[in-house]
TrEMBL record:
Source domain of life: Bacteria
Protein name (record): GAF domain-containing protein
Keywords: Coiled coil
Record domain GAF: where: 150-316
Pfam family, one: GAF_2
Coiled-coil residue spans: 308-352
Record organism: Paractinoplanes pyxinae
């Protein structure tokens, strides 16, 4: 519907004096992007308005001759009627800057911002007859400012190495808050092999939906996200109910209350797949250029965050491996030192034992050879000691040939201990 200024009622009395000026204003603002409306009387009846005014409030409400609050019931409680009353009552103009206003109701409602002025309309005698409304919508500029602030905040989070889940969740909530219409944002992360997508962030989607799509394969026709990941290019599904890509997920989407899904792949600088960035709508929706630009901006932020996360993961893994290697080397050094200490202890003990043996041998060698047989028992033996015998335990004794023969026959482990074997030969050949 094309908005046209409504018909003006015939002016009477002193109000005629202001008619040429208001006709000029109508001409100036007729096709302007600025919002312009003439309100009359204490009820603030819309006398006339330009096309921008009706485009702002909705073409279906483009009519005149009705009170402003009747035309726009959503203004109740927002304070604007009170300001109009004030200007009408006092005759003092009012100016507002970046004032927030809720336009429309239900799902068609949107948040907007305006710079505006309310100026009193006066008759020739000076009496206030109504209010002149002139405004410029600053919603896009305001959103751009907020976008830049949120974008900067996300980059600061990435720089200070905030957890990836925190960054992605904050980014999703930021977009859902910035976009005028209701949207639900989802970020899926690619597995290392790039064949599956895992849940990354989706603060406003139902939990059952997030669980159902966690781990979906990448491939042609696998919803918006699986297809976008496979193609490495955006996939815009404006109506899930009829799109073949959603054949396997249509019931799931219906239960989640989503009807459109625009998905953009998140790519690394080398072109490898990092994940997908999706915007869901409650009703079938076609993206505008501004929507696609916003998606590209935040897909870039997501790519930066995910790449940074991967770098930190790789660095942490490398540090862990290096620490494990250092720990293993330290353990080997400790074990080598322990073995060396034990070997040195054994060597010292062996040297000490050898010294004792040598000392004992030297002591024994220095002892005089007994003159009489030592093997005669308690009765003793008066025969001269001629042969030395020893047993396997190292005990030795000197004896006469008779007692030596008896010992060898009786004790099987006894043997002749003469170094030159002369004694043995003498014993055998006697």
């Amino acid at each position: 519907m094309t908005a046209r200024p409504g018909p003006e009622p015939a002016a009477a009395g002193p109000a005629v004096a202001e008619q040429p000026a208001e006709d000029d204003l109508r001409a100036l603002f007729g096709r302007s992007a600025a919002v312009f409306a003439l309100l009359s009387g204490p009820a603030h009846v819309v006398e006339s308005a330009n096309a921008a005014f009706f485009a702002t409030i909705g073409e279906d409400r483009a009519r005149t001759g009705v009170a402003l609050e009747e035309l726009m019931p959503e203004l109740a409680g927002q304070g604007f009627t009170a300001l109009l009353d004030q200007v009408y009552r006092t005759g003092e103009p009012y100016a507002g800057r970046d004032v927030e206003v809720r336009l429309g109701t239900g799902r068609s409602a949107r948040q907007a911002f305006f710079d505006f002025t309310y100026e009193p309309r006066r008759a020739a005698g000076g009496a206030v007859t109504g209010v002149r409304v002139i405004g410029v919508e600053t919603t896009q500029a305001k959103q751009a400012q907020r976008l830049m602030a949120e974008h900067r905040a996300l980059l600061e989070q990435i720089i200070r190495q905030a957890p990836l889940a925190e960054v992605l969740d904050g980014m999703a909530r930021c977009i859902e808050h910035l976009v005028p219409q209701e949207v639900l944002v989802s970020v899926l992360l690619a597995d290392a092999d790039g064949r599956h997508l895992r849940h990354g962030a989706a603060p406003s989607l139902p939990e059952f939906y997030n669980e159902a799509i966690d781990g979906i394969a990448t491939g042609e026709g696998v919803g918006s996200c699986g297809t976008a990941a496979h193609r490495r290019e955006p996939v815009i599904v404006t109506d899930i109910a009829t799109d073949p890509f959603w054949a396997d997920f249509r019931d799931l989407a219906g239960r989640a209350g989503v009807a459109a899904c625009w998905s953009t792949p998140i790519l690394a600088r080398d072109g490898s797949l990092l994940g997908t960035f999706a915007v869901y709508h409650r009703t079938p929706s076609v993206p505008q250029d501004a929507d696609l630009a916003l998606t590209r901006v935040f897909a870039g932020v997501a790519a930066l965050a995910i790449e940074r996360h991967h770098i930190e993961q790789a660095r942490a893994a490398a540090e862990a491996r290096a620490q494990e290697a250092n720990d293993a080397l330290a353990a080997a050094v400790r074990a080598e030192r322990k073995l060396r200490a034990e070997a040195e202890q054994r060597a010292a003990a062996s040297a000490e034992l050898t010294a004792r043996v040598r000392a004992a041998a030297a002591a024994q060698a220095a002892a005089p050879r007994p003159y009489l047989c030592q093997l005669g028992g308690q009765a003793g033996c008066a025969e001269p000691a001629e042969l030395k015998i020893a047993d396997s335990w190292g005990d030795a004794a000197w004896g006469c040939p008779a007692h030596v023969e008896e010992a060898i026959i009786t004790v099987r482990s006894v043997f002749i201990a003469s170094e030159e074997l002369g004694g043995l030969a003498a014993y055998v050949n006697r």
